[in-house]
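Lecture notes, unit on protein representations.

Consider one protein chain, 505 amino acids long.
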Amino acid sequence: MQASTALTYDEKMLANYVPIYVMLPLGVITSDNVFEDKDGLEKQLKELKSAGVDGVMVDIWWGIIESKGPKQYDWSAYGSLFELVQQCELKLQAIMSFHQCGGNVGDVITIPIPKWILDIGETNPDIFYTNRTGNRNKEYLTIGVDNQPLLYGRTAIEIYSDYMKSFRENMSDFLDAGLIVDIEVGLGPAGELRYPSYPQSQGWAFPGIGEFQCYDKYLQADFKEAATSAGHPEWDLPDNAGTYNDTPEATEFFGANGTYLTEKGKFFLTWYSNKLLNHGDEILEEANKAFLGCKVKLAAKVSGIHWWYKADNHTAELTAGYYNLNYRDGYRPIARMLSRHHGILNFTCLEMRDSEQSAGAKSGPQELVQQVLSGGWREHIEVAGENALSRYDAAGYNQILLNARPNGVSREGPPKLRMHGVTYLRLSDELLAEENFKIFKIFVKKMHADQKYCPDPKKYNHEVTPLERSQPKLTIEQLLEATKKVQPFPWDKETDMSVGDSLAA
């Protein structure tokens, strides 16, 4: 009798289980497409497995796979990596990484986008994002060429689509076997749905406001057409929004009573953010077609731009393309767009607390996470996330645990709110060092609500079913209805699954 009651309790507790993945090193496949240190990685994966980790995440770099020329794909090194992950009995989250590695926080290696694309950029630099002074950013193709057949006869979206179809064909064994649970579709720099508004490679430093990135000729023409259609052919792109490391007050656009509050400013910000929404929507539509019927979830990543969040102008978010203000929700329309593709919203900076930030940056990572996750849940989609910077301390882990279950565990079945999964950034010798790994193992156990590793996702309501066709396209009006600000769900002050309790014990 007692045994069956205990089992029932464990089953109830399993409904609180949040799977935990670990991001593999950026250069696990080298820039010349070689899986170099198989033995070393195998040892590390076995350590992760022993800690109860559910799976790993890996970037599948466009710059590696299609480096030889258009449609010349080479998946062999990744095939060997996937086999190893499978042998270690871990699940896999695969990122379609259409961006450059290098030039962002934590980028320790450089993997450019394919050379044949960069060569086109030599004669037509407008295929890249461009700021007001004409600096080009070669991390990712501008949204302006999404539907322009400039790349050996293909549009950017066709290139992404062909790549994903090739991935499906070449990795079908792994997809059929259920190894790959998520396909995260890269939608911009660092794989995030945003503009490259704060590039360190161009001198940006935290907490600079960043710059708008829409001055390539294709986006300029698009804006001109939009403004003319709206009856304002005289309107131009902003020329008063400052430079990367300005403060908001130093600019006319973002200052008190700035341009961003005028009819012209609102028109521009709506256009700029809608371009981003549509970009994500179109590529996810292609991803849905490519992986239709596969037992995978699609996901898209949104950047945690927490600096200037507590300023009225939310400047750093606006330059990145998130038109988020105190009275306008810039994230929920993204969640609504994702809902039609049955997608997961993956968010960053889960580990950050306001108290750790410098006061001058007006940062609000806690409120930002709360707003974005709440918006996802209100649109009835799954939300997942990751830490922005590597952390090995109890405070960082406890903040992630709080965000994973904002109202704690429920001993009677599913909790009120629960994230779909968390990916820890990132696998390294430092993570596996004795003291760090000891606390990480406790963190994994707490993510699992003190339950043992569960190999059957059905038991915690995470069964992966065949991907269904995307719902019909939403009108821009339907998407923009989601900009209406609603109070976020309440969060507990602290997690009820603290790693600290176990450390003290």
